[in-house]
Amino acid sequence: MVAAMEEDEKKQQAEVMVTPGEVLGRVSDVKPGRGAYAAVHNDTVYASLTGFCRTMPPSPDSSDQRPTVEVTGHKAHGPVPQPGSLVIARITKVMAKTASADIMCVGPKSVREKFTGIIRQQDVRATEIDKVDMHLSFRPGDIVKALVLSLGDSRAYFLSTAKNELGVVSAESIAGATMVPVSWTEMQCPLTGQIENRKVAKVAS
Amino acid sequence: MAGTGGTAPATYSPSPTTHKNKTSLFQQDWVRPDGRGFHQCRPAFFRTGAVNAASGSAYAEFGNTKVIVSVFGPRESKKAMMYSDIGRLNCNVSYTTFASPVRGQGSDHKEYTAMLHKALEGAIILESFPKTTVDVFALVLESGGSDLPVVISCASLALADAGIMMYDLVASVSVSCLSKNLVIDPVFEEENSQDGSLMITCMPSRYEITQLTVTGEWSTPKINEGMQLCLDACAKLAKIMRSCLKEAASDSQE
Fold first, then answer.
1. Interface of A with B (CB under 8 A)
2. Which residues form the domain of A33?
3. Which CATH number among 3.30.230.70, 3.30.470.20, 3.30.420.40, 3.40.50.970 corresponds to the domain B31-75+86-242?
4. In this predicted complex, what is the ipTM?
5. How far is B192 from chain A (nearest CA, A)?
6. How high is the pLDDT of residue B243?
7. Distances (CA, A) of B128 to A115, B48, B73, B86
8. Residue in A closest to B158 by C-alpha
9. Does residue A116 lie in a domain region?
């Protein structure tokens, strides 16, 4: 049993392909990471995805000195918005106290099918949150960078743009040209010179 | 008969010879149409990645039973659904119009759908995709017997191909009782003339059963024998499924 375990560990260093339900180790020896889970009834760690199995050494200052075993899916399904992830969304509807948006990208990956998000008045910016005018912050069609606050309700995820680097990234002016940001509240149309109000994201230069 | 006239038939009673046909089929020496042994399954063929549009898909061919399953998701649940902490599984099993020997209307099998749902929901880690739905659509292209077990095994391969987190792969085999014989992986003909059937869906690596369906008349020792047959066959089927997944994954790596 011990000899087989050592052999397994060597194999894991070489990245074995595993399928869901394959045994990766015992709970006493390894900790389940992403793509693996621990079965309580028999103290075994099984894989839950198809992919390569990797063993990460434990960090030296943690009390739990078991290595973490994780399975990186060779084919991950489309990303799903999780609380705390940065998303790119397109505004679809602007109302008095909320704005609806279609989430198109989660982190660097684009989703297969869009998810619905909502930005509430109190989540648009960090200061003077009760004096926010939604129509001076967003317009339908704007591309915004937002943070997922929570899973929200059955209809939409709750998004927030209350940081300097969050907000409108790209917008079209009334004339039809892509606008240039002027300040954190204004964007200018290059064709007509008109200034329009938006909650602009501070893009690091 | 109509030409003779005169004597009108009083009552009709079936001639005693009509019963013989039925019993002769169930002799002890029933020979399977494809020449297999009673405890021999059909050779299984699996291939993943059959449907490009879907998140994951699989095609399975067991003799004359051909099934294709596509998995979409996790994607947004319908707005009308209530909020849920865990993911939802939505299944659908449908037959093509050309699936059965007699061309019929492509139908939606509600009972197979419910059974597929019960078989799969125990194996998927629903907590890994809260608020979203995973859709599993199974299409039976040709029905050559033992359809539901093939659909279930193929669906679990498609879910693994889609990258949905699962506790284990799900393998399913059914056994038919023909008078005194237990016949594994029955063909269409055998299913039509069976006395009873036993279908087991299990997670082979964890040795846990997710679904057990028994129809007809079974004595306890027969059930035990049938269950043991099925579990052994499921373990072998799982090996084939795993090798198919690994092959597909290493192919895509290159």
1. 17, 19-23, 35, 37, 39, 46, 48-51, 73-78, 80, 112-116, 151, 153-155
2. 2-73
3. 3.30.230.70
4. 0.81
5. 35
6. 92
7. 17, 23, 12, 7
8. A50
9. yes
